[in-house]
Amino acid sequence: MRSEQFEAVIEGILFTMGESVEIARLAEALELETEQVRQILHKMTERYEQEDRGIQIIEIEDAVQMCTKKELYEYLIKVAKQPKRHVLTDVLLETLSIIAYKQPITRLEIEKIRGVSCAHAVNKLVEYNLVCELGRLDAPGRPLLFGTTEEFLRSFGVQSIEELPTLNQDQLEEFRHQAEEEMNLKLNV
Predict the structure, then answer these.
(1) Do the domains at 3-70 and 90-188 have one common CATH topology?
(2) What is the CATH number of domain 3-70?
């Protein structure tokens, strides 16, 4: 097969799947080495950018997905029904941050960090497909473990959890101080 034919096959697979496909699975389907598939994908991505196409290929961890460029959203909503946008409240963002940085994590561990019940927040994040159940902890009661999803990575524009920003020690101390002040205010009320 010629390079153009491999590109056509990859394009067809990604378009049809509509979700991310592991690069290793593409390599297996094409009977190529993973690195060869990565080179083909890189070439396709460059061509889409040079030709200013309406689609792009994004990499999420060790998988790729074909999607529409963000810049075209306003045109899409003129044709399609406006997609429901989920509103992330401060509570949801706080809970999502804890899960993203501490995953896999149980609901009880999240509640220990937040200091309040988080069942509703976790359920909303699961409903929004930003968080999913990863399994169960091997401990009494076998509590559920939660972690982020590919939709989380797409929504926040990162390829992997490792790309999340890190907090420096001064920021952590400031957050700890603010949390302690809030706890003291609650206890004094």
Answers:
(1) yes
(2) 1.10.10.10
Long-range contacts, stretch 80-83, CB < 8 angstroms, 24+ apart:
none
Domain ranges of the chain: 3-70, 90-188
Task: Give the orientation angle of helix 23-30 with respect to helix 3-17, to 10 degrees.
Answer: 130
Residues in the chain: 189
Could you give the count of Cα atoms lying within 13 Å of 170 in the half-sphere of its Cβ?
Answer: 0
Contact between residue 128 and residue 122 where contact means Cβ atoms under 8 Å apart: no
- 142 secondary structure, DSSP code: -
Question: How far, CA to CA in Å, does 19 sit from each of 14, 28, 34, 89, 153?
Answer: 7, 18, 19, 27, 13
What type of residue sits at position 140?
P
Instruction: List the structure tokens of 186.
Output: 């609650």
Block means of pLDDT (10 residues each) for the chain, length 189 residues?
88 90 94 94 93 90 90 81 74 92 92 89 94 92 93 87 80 71 65
Whether pTM exceeds 0.70:
no
90-188 classified as CATH 1.10.10.10: yes
